[in-house]
Amino acid sequence: MKRSILTILLFLAATSWINAQTSGTLTVTATTSSAGGNFAPKNIVAVWIENEQGNFVKTLLAYAQTRKTHLNTWEASTTAAGSPFNTVDAVTGATKTSHATRTCTWDGTDINGTLVPDGTYKVRMELTDKNSTGNYSTFTITKDTNPENQTPANVPSFSSISINWEPVLTNIGDNAFTESYKIQPNPTTGIISITGENIREIQISNISGALIYRSQSPSADISHQPDGVYLVKITTDKGTVIKKIFKNGL
Fold first, then answer.
1. Which of 117, 167, 187, 233 is close enough to 203 for a disulfide, judged by CB 3.0 to 4.6 Å?
2. What is the Cα–Cα distance from 77 to 56, expressed in whole angstroms?
3. What is the pLDDT of residues 56-107, one digit of tens each?
4. Domain 170-247 = CATH 2.30.42.60
């Protein structure tokens, strides 16, 4: 009896402070211009995301191949993360021979495909047209359940900038939809079954946000994982549902 009460208390305590992880799409658009280099109008450009502490999260766009080492700020950010010039899921291509409007998107995940916690993030842009550092700028956005639309002032090499965050709110605003998906048993010793209509995929993350399980099957076995709180992201034809489960192997 005491063990059951302790399990419930631990579950309630953990779920009260676990980081929210809102799905959505960030769209970044900017028109590029010269940095005053001797290779203009040829240019290389990168757009990427860092967290509030300045740690690399994901590259969104990188038009640079053999000359990418001259994007010094982007290089430093990705190298500090242990993955120099990482372009997982990014829009990529060779050196651009002219300037134009560039657009890229972010789905709120890191290079491992893990949905990152809600909070403050930095959109960073860098462009050079010379064999040295060019122009770079930083813009701050908030990733959470609220839409955010920014049109920052022009900065060197980037103009007509728009930064728009559109969250997916299906799992928050429609309680009936959320409650139509069940995870049993919960708490669990490791094996769970998910019921509900048109389930396309499930992802399970630990309390630190690391993805530990991904499948198109509506069931999972996390028996080998440590006891604790986990987030289950259920992707359906009508939207996304995020639920919490508690694993107790005793």
1. 233
2. 6
3. 999 999 999 989 999 999 999 999 999 999 999 999 999 999 999 999 999 8
4. no
